[in-house]
Amino acid sequence: MSKHQPTPLFPTLPELQSLALKDYPLLHDFITSGPDWRFQHWHWGKDFLLYIGRNKSEHTYTRFRNDVEKFLLWVFLFEQRPLDELRKTDILRYIDFCVQPPLDWIRTQLHDRFELQSGYFQSNPQWSPFRMVKPKHDKTHEPDVRQYRPSQQTLTSTFVALSALYRHLIDEEICFGNPVPLAKRDCKHLIKDSQVKNISRLTEQQWQYLLDTALAMADEDALYERHLFIIATMKTLFLRLSELSERTDWTPLMSHFWTDDTNNWWFKAYGKGKKIRDITVPQSYLPFLSRYREWRGLSPLPTRGEQTLLVEKIRGRGGLTGRHIARLIQEVFDAAYTKMKAEQGLNAAQKLQEASTHYLRHTGASMEIERDRPLKDLSEDLGHASSATTDTVYVQVERKRRASSGKLRKV
Question: How far is CA 314 from CA 96, 310, 341, in A?
Answer without folding.
Answer: 48, 12, 31
